[in-house]
Amino acid sequence: MENNNENILQVQNMHVYFYHDHGVLKAVSGVNFEVDKQKTLGIVGESGCGKSVTAHSLLRIMLPRSKMEQGKIYLNPPGQKEPLKLHQMHPKSKNIRRVRGNLISMIFQEPMTSLSPVHTIENQIKEAITLHREKDKKEAQKIALEMLKKVGISDPEQRLTEYPHQLSGGMRQRAMTAMALSCNPYILIADEPTTALDVTVQAQILDLMADLQKSLAMSIIYITHDMGVIAEVADEVCVMYLGKVVEYTDVDTLFYNAQHPYTQSLLNAIPRMDYEGRLEAIKGRVPEPVDLPEVCHFYPRCDQSIEGKCNQEEPPVFQTEEGHRVKCFLYEGGSGPDG
Ligand SMILES: Nc1ncnc2c1ncn2[C@@H]1O[C@H](COP(=O)(O)OP(=O)(O)O)[C@@H](O)[C@H]1O
Ligand SMILES: [Mg+2]
User: Fold this and answer.
1) What is the pLDDT of residues 8-51, one digit of tens each?
2) Are β-strands 324-326 and 244-250 bridged in parallel, bridged antiparallel, or unpaired?
């Protein structure tokens, strides 16, 4: 495969399953996407749709009882002729450890899952730096301070000496972001990083991400259940439902021409400032993807479904316009729902 200069990451037909006593749970089944250089790919879907399992799998972090059954993950670091084949790297190998935190970093919804409660912020950032970059302690300390300034932490010299529990939720999220970015990764994976924060702090963190993306020239994979956040951060968007990508397009197209009924329902559920009525929630719940038949999995919740079709076969992916892919029978033959 050629080292394509436009995208930094390509994921092809990724399947990740959990093996439970009550059956095989297909958390991710056949996911495809690309991440462009210095752009943000948003991944959106309700809770349980496979977003976090997708994120972990990119770094070959295999959760207990799970296995990546199929798929290819190509990373194209600039200046390198051949892409790195992450799917071939053993989850405990030296090669993938060199990728984690170094070429690709990840931040999580709850900073306490990746910050240690018993070490100061300074020691944690310094350790992240010396682990991945050949820097001595003094240099590492300088970078740690710079990073805290970059992520907008007030009184950074003082903060360096503090422990995570001494910081507010927003400050902890910033400290974790500083740690994740301290090695200048090509890609930052942010898995619902603002969900636990109030809206004002969330808005500040989103602004911060946009600034950092520009100054560090990195790509971001931003995971959220919130279409409002997608509108703020994403260039391209992957909409996931039950382990599959159901719609994939650029963010403008998604907002003016959402085609999958699931995407349309997510958009109808966004709160609007000028709207005082009841929000339209999507009817029904996300089921567990265990022993599901090979049909459209959104069928039971869809108000546009075609009886005898959507509950009989799995819809293929249709390209409805350039760069716009939809996994839905309404678009069979390129006609769209009205024609
Ligand atoms: N550690 C785990 N063990 C077993 N099943 C899991 C685990 N993590 C996630 N799953 C299952 O995988 C599916 C996808 O989960 P996840 O990727 O966490 O969803 P999301 O991040 O979109 O909310 C869900 O059905 C969830 O129950
Ligand atoms: Mg998640």
Assistant:
1) 999 999 999 999 988 999 999 999 999 999 999 999 999 999 99
2) antiparallel
155 CA distance to ligand 1 middle (Å): 38
CB proximity list for 266: less than 8 A, separation 6 or greater: 44, 45, 46, 227, 239, 282
Buried b (16+ CB within 10 A) or exposed e, 189-212: bbbbbbbbbeeebbebbbebbeeb
Q: Which residue, judged by its Cα, is nearest atom 6 of ligand 1?
A: 18
- For domain 7-103+185-334, the CATH architecture is 3-Layer(aba) Sandwich (3.40)
CA of 227 from ligand 2 middle (Å) equals 15
**Atom in ligand 1 nearest the alpha carbon of residue 65:** 3
Share of the chain above pLDDT 90, in %: 63
Q: 201: which 2 tokens?
A: 């702090």
Does the C-beta of 48 come closer than 6 Å to ligand 1? yes
What's the predicted TM-score (pTM) here? 0.93
Helices marked H in 161-275 — which ranges?
Answer: 169-181, 199-216, 227-233, 251-256, 261-268
Q: What tokens does 103 get? A: 């070429």
Answer whether 285 contacts ligand 1 (Cβ < 6 A): no
Q: Tell me the pLDDT band of 159, cut-offs 50, 70 and 90.
A: very high
